Amino acid sequence: MSKIVLVGGGTGLSTFARVIKDFVTSLTLIVAVTDDGGSSGILREALGMPPPGDVRNNIIALADDEELLTKVFSHRFSAPAMNGHSLGNIIIAGLMEMCGGFSEAVLTASRMLKIKGIVLPVAEDLVSLVGELDDGTIVKGESRVSAAGKRLKKVSLDRTCEALPEVSDSLVSADTIIIGPGSLFTSVVPNFLVSGVKEALKRSQARKIYVCNIMTQPGETDDFSLAKHVQIAESYCGVEFDLIFWTEIGGVASSVLSRYEEKGSRPVENDMISDGRVKVITGATTEFIDDGRRRPVLRHSRAGIISILHELGLLGEEGI
Fold first, then answer.
1. For residue 294, is pLDDT > 70?
2. Transmembrane residues, as ranges (predicted)?
């Protein structure tokens, strides 16, 4: 039985998890805990707890989408007095008080939704992301780092924190570790700023796989090519990747790309064509999200994710 570990946060991790859960029997997700925006940020501030949002999204991704509880965890309040809270976030906050800890709350919520795999917050500590900009300015908080509007020089945590033992164990015992996709500096890298994660990754005999984002991200990876993404990711992870996946987006509507370009986001250029580790996949899709501004967003497609699994030898013909 092949043990697969995904490392990241945000929508990138949940997009992959939602597909991979149908094809592998041992799947663990390691999720960053530096989010400080929206409902998660409010609960983090009010209750002194790690942000539940990314963990909740990934629990839902591994759950049976037809289950009523999955719909309950996904519900977001519309009343202004509820500050846009997700019901799932509030449930996890309540479980934390009942169970005595964040990881116990995540485990209980996972059991409630009978998920296909394991979701692990990378740590239980309340930590903040700190960004140093090119001009020397220091900004604290993931949302402020993303919105700074200037190129990032480096990121760190505001205090030392230790990875959960289960996180280190899962990395060391894994057969395949997939890092990304996700916001490079605010979803992927924060996991490797937690003490013990980089060390466990180095000790692991697993294949280390990097899945690059489809588009650059304004304020984080402006004009970053594939090589720049890989350089930054490898520098924080402390290892060289065995395989790197880059996505060809030739079939995406020009109107969608134009909307991204208006905001300063462009397709990531593949400038590593001669590097034998790089595998090109075709598989971007457009999804509509509705957060009050219904709009199309680019995601790795189900077919593209399955092609990655085929390339990694994680699927037989029965997985098609």
1. no
2. none
Q: What are the residue boundaries of the structural domains of the chain, listed by start?
A: 3-9+123-319, 33-121
Task: Write down the pLDDT at residue 73.
Answer: 86
- Chain-wide mean pLDDT for the chain? 90
Residue 154 sits at φ, ψ, to 5 deg, of -165, 165
Whether the CB-CB separation of 197 and 177 falls below 8 Å is answered with no
Q: For 3-9+123-319, which CATH class?
A: alpha beta
Supply the pTM of this predicted model: 0.92
**292 has pLDDT over 80:** no
Residue 66, pLDDT above cutoff 90: no
- The pLDDT of 116-124, averaged and rounded, is 96
pLDDT tens profile 297-320? 888 999 999 999 999 999 853 444
**Secondary structure in 3-state letters for the chain:** CCEEEEEECHHHHHHHHHHHCCCCCEEEEEECCCCCCHHHHHHHHHHCCCCCHHHHHHHHHHCCCCCHHHHHHHCECCCHHHCCCEHHHHHHHHHHHHHCCHHHHHHHHHHHHCCCCEEEECCCCCCCEEEEECCCCEEECHHHHHHCCCCEEEEEECCCCECCHHHHHHHHHCCEEEECCCCHHHHHHHHHCCECHHHHHHHCCCEEEEECCCECCCCCCCCCCHHHHHHHHHHHHCCCCCEEEEEECCCCCHHHHHHHHHCCCCECCCCCCCCCCEEEEECEEEEEECCCCCEEEEEECHHHHHHHHHHCCCCCHHHC
* pLDDT tens-digit series, residues 217-232: 988 899 999 999 999 9
Q: How large is the angle between the packed helices 87-99 and 38-47, nearest 10 degrees?
A: 30
